[in-house]
């Protein structure tokens, strides 16, 4: 809702949203039901229930899992990975708590159905790993985000204490290693995202585990949290979020949830009964640790409780225990129960962090070498994959095109193969860390400079860690593009005549980037563009991608190489299909259109809106007249002039790529007569001189009235406004 214009007013610009996360849609029922119960107005609870019903109906029926992001109009899953962390977490929490607060059996039945799927597919004790909803046996990633730290607390509420203790202990070991829980960490407990915005989920689970077990161990855990906060996060005006848990650097922020949740749970953890001015057992916590009274379940019941849940899976009866467990039942005469579960996990973090092979050890050749070296590994090689499988190493293809490796020694063919797998992983970790230490290069630009784009289209490109450094060659590399054969560029190019003196287009995959570069350079290409083979990938949503070398000396590669994601690459491919001859500029940043091109575009605009001006231009010069009367010849011939890239008045950064054609007048002029291009190719210097001199004639002999200039400006403004409207 736009607070100024409402929903339906055009200026509100609402109604364009299409997606929401599962937690966003599924974390309304407690507050909205409370609002209905307090006010006696049922509409709030009705709509919150409708949102929950919608998600339940759209669950994946075979796995009973839900995705992270859903299209609010169609109900299609946009992101089809499923876990218990970011994007889903509080949906599960509110199903169980809605049953506790409102007493509706259908909420508990839904929660238990989901919980069975979570424990079947996502829970890999002590880890909780995201999976694909359609292929739940396949992990979607090999890292976990810190928001899943709430889940042990929810398991306590459910009464499933053992896995809660296991996951909580694993998280505590990560905290002891890094002082705080990183925003994301890998399955071998390395930092994946280093931030920590003082999240309270781990403190929440610590409080609930202490309530369930009475084990003083969890008081020690709470003490550690407080000491770390005071030692590392406390600043003169409060507590600062950690920018990087590895360096201890701060961000200038303290989120409201830190006060609402962290301090509250820590206070309750250490509070004695006499410290409380009310009975905490009479309330339930919302996901933001606000308290709602349990008596709401019997107040103003405007919604008829009926079981709308359908199509349940046959589950273990114990999963449907509807009584709240207590410590006497959970730990019969065994105060050491929780400790016995924690003990095997005491060193899980340190044991799972393999020590990198030192260069001294490698040079001495100590120990046997694995049958496959990390630097030789190719993800597309079936023989390599078979060796990995034998060593207990599994390969996971991520959505952004990267590949992750995970080793499970128990899955190796033998103990010797498991040792080989460990050595391979150690080599791979060192190789990866070396690449990460290399200087991160800034993004590059691919600018389409031929008709009808003239530099208006600028595509964000990833750099290569080899080949020509475009930051040191300010002019960049300019040329027409050509698609190579084979398209993957992994063998000798079979159409060198089409590639020579051109910028080669090729597809990602099948071989190393450096190998592609060598093959097109041998065929005579002056540059290369690698297009991502992952459908729908885009620089808008994916992080900057750098093309690494092949671990060997790449000094022999002298041409520039750039990487385009799938969406940006298709823009060039579509341009080739429509205009055939497409010229691009590879550079460190987009170049502005020069004055000459601006004057030419101005004359074209005058030709469209002021016929008399074209006649004057014709009398001034026959060549300039050709530009005015036949814009396609003039434009096409001038494309070959290296100095004329794009109209200076068009800000390429602000122009939407998807709507370029709506801005360019007369896009059907692509079928310009070929001789004009030929003439421009053979006589670029003459063409430039004539155009410059004719520009002088026009400005010296024909003084434009202010009204005409303003009219031209207004046309440009209207064109940009139309583009913005089309974009919306």
From TrEMBL:
CDD domains reported for this sequence: PA_EDEM3_like
The PA domain sits at: 484-571
SUPFAM superfamilies cross-referenced by the UniProt entry: PA domain (SSF52025), Seven-hairpin glycosidases (SSF48225)
Binding of Ca(2+), residues: 287
Tell me which domain of life the UniProt entry assigns to the organism this sequence originates from: Eukaryota
GO MF entries: calcium ion binding; mannosyl-oligosaccharide 1,2-alpha-mannosidase activity
One Gene Ontology term of the biological-process aspect is: response to unfolded protein
Region described as Disordered: 602-702
Location comes to: Endoplasmic reticulum
Task: Name the residue ranges with Basic and acidic residues bias.
Answer: 602-614, 683-693
Any one of the GO CC terms:
endoplasmic reticulum quality control compartment
Family recorded in the similarity comment: Belongs to the glycosyl hydrolase 47 family.
Specify residue ranges for compositional bias: Polar residues: 653-662
Record protein name field: alpha-1,2-Mannosidase
